[in-house]
Amino acid sequence: MSETSQPRGDVPAEEEPRPTPLLEPREGVPPVVASADGLERVIAAFAAGDGPVAVDAERASGYRYGQRAYLVQLRRAGAGTALIDPIGCPDLSGLAAALDDVEMVLHAASQDLPCLAELGLVPRRIFDTELAGRLLGHPRVGLGSMVETVLGFTLEKGHSAADWSTRPLPPEWLRYAALDVELLVELRDALHAELTAAGKLEWAAQEFAAVLATPPKPPRPDPWRRTSGIHRVRNRRGLAVVREVWEARDRIAVERDLSPGRVLQDTAIVELALNQPKSPAELQELSTMRGRGARRYLSVWLRAVNRARGLTERELPESSLPGDGPPPAHRWAERDPEAARRLTAARGVVAALADEHTMPSENLVQPDLIRRLAWSPPEPVDAERVATTLALLGAREWQVELVAVPLARALLRVETKGDV
């Protein structure tokens, strides 16, 4: 430290200990298990191990169609680390049965549970280290950040966006994958102690149970409406082009097992909707049609545009789908000024309580619950009815206990002022 940056009083500032790079798994990188015999050995070893099991999965998002797992990593005391190839071992239900009531430790569990369930690995109890970090108010809750701030080690994160469908997997990728579960149980133990000290352990238990109880998401109606940049398409004919091209792209992506964006980018779909080319020459003039993937299927895209152009008015998609909840909050002031005031008051209550309990507002109560409560509050408003409404909307018991009374008071204040 230079003299100009020395703290006042010439007292050297204490340097925080630097985190230790975690470069190699303790027992080395295990071989990838890709056979039934190898899987049986893993099952036996992990069934004989002790304590929670660290679990992680690597997908090939951005490369392959869907979100299936291409590598599953496990670690347990007494068993070490296992790397399982789901292509060679597509059924992990035997492993799930052997670990029937063992707690599984995951980071951001909601991301990995669906692809693990496809393999038959469905935990009965979990500890989510990311969710625990949020409840504790950690400013950064990525795995690398939490391992560094809580345990004092740094993890390499250079391969998180790799194409994990690659075979064989490079040795450095396997090392990275093994290190992702190397300290996950130790992180769990440290966060468990923090939750206990903060009086939040029961809150975490309810949150983990809610993650496990969340049913698989049903298919979205009109998934093509999530095309990035679709807001630029301002008429129903253009939306029909988006729909036809999106569906054509999706069929190709499924057939070739490619991420849809590698077949045709969303920006190209939107440009087709805005320009609606009528000939191959017009199509090729578009800037987004110059990539290899786009050029390969030029005739497919042109036929899709022509199909949309030939639809009758009745066949065109509606400008938007009717929602099952309140309208967007930015429209409330115009449509229902009192509801807008209720929402402002409710959000203020939640923000204050979240600050008091050192956690993000969205983890104290989901924003959608607050919007629904403010748009359509119970009549008459009181703490008991607010609590019942929140519970019916999916709020956990600990959340209801914290927010029902202050929210009822805030809604009543708005109602009283409106009657004056």
Automatic annotation (TrEMBL):
> What are the boundaries of the region Disordered?
1-30, 312-332
Domain HRDC intervals: 235-315
Q: One of this protein's GO BP terms?
A: nucleobase-containing compound metabolic process
Look up the domain of life of the source.
Bacteria
Organism annotation: Actinomadura craniellae
The cross-references to InterPro entries, in alphabetical order and at most eight, read: 3'-5'_exonuclease_dom, Exo_C, HRDC-like_sf, HRDC_dom, HRDC_dom_sf, RNase_D-like, RNaseH-like_sf, RNaseH_sf
List the GO molecular function terms.
Answer: 3'-5' exonuclease activity; nucleic acid binding; nucleotide binding
Q: What is this protein called?
A: Ribonuclease D
